[in-house]
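pasting for ref
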Amino acid sequence: MTDSRFRLGTWTGAAVGIAASGLVVFADALIDPGVSLVTPLALVVVAIAWLSTPAACGITVILGSSLGSVQNVIARGVPITPSTVIADAMRLATLAALAFLAYELRRVLEYAQTTAVHDQLTGLLNRRGFFELAEREVARSQRDGTPFTIAVMDLDRFKQINDARGHEAGDDALVRFARHASGTLRRIDVLGRTGGDEFCLVLPLGPEAAAAVVRKVIDVPSEDGQPELRVSAGVVSYPHAPESLHAALIAADKRMYAAKKRFSGLDIEVAPE
């Protein structure tokens, strides 16, 4: 329950909630009908609100509270009066309020986790998020002995776009490139915005395959009314993971500046065995 990214589907969550509520009512009938159901039902509702969807939680709240009302009538012999109806309504409102608070808490936590590692403008990993996943890829490559390629990419003439069209146009250019790059890459590839107009990419591929992928990434299609985007990329490909991610980034950065000076788009270096 501590991982806010995990979530049950609506029907699975509802089924778990209904089953747990039924178990609470059954246990109450076996142990002591005089024990209040509010506390254990509240725990069930909070768990479903945290683990599932609002719809599943709503179903759990309604059915759990209804089971509590039925339990009062059948097991405790409580007559149905205006007072008991009011009490049932208050229990329902209490459970609904707890569900709302638990769900809102999870939503806030999810937002905090997302913004901590993602760039708010482009939606890509930010510098922190990129380095976290890139270090994992280094460890995986070292463990499995698989190829490791890193690329540093920079938008050409980005300052001119900002100066001529304004910072909003510059932001649009960054978003266009991020959208195109994300659509080109696979889920296992690691792409992040690590600076103003600088992006870094980790690919678990050898030099030829990685170069083909990077060429597609930096080939941004033109759009009507939008400035043409040219991107320079420096690529360093290792047969196995580098000893230092920082050193690999420095090497790729040098290759990127070499490509920018030659207007070649891509400069690649293959590290020795």
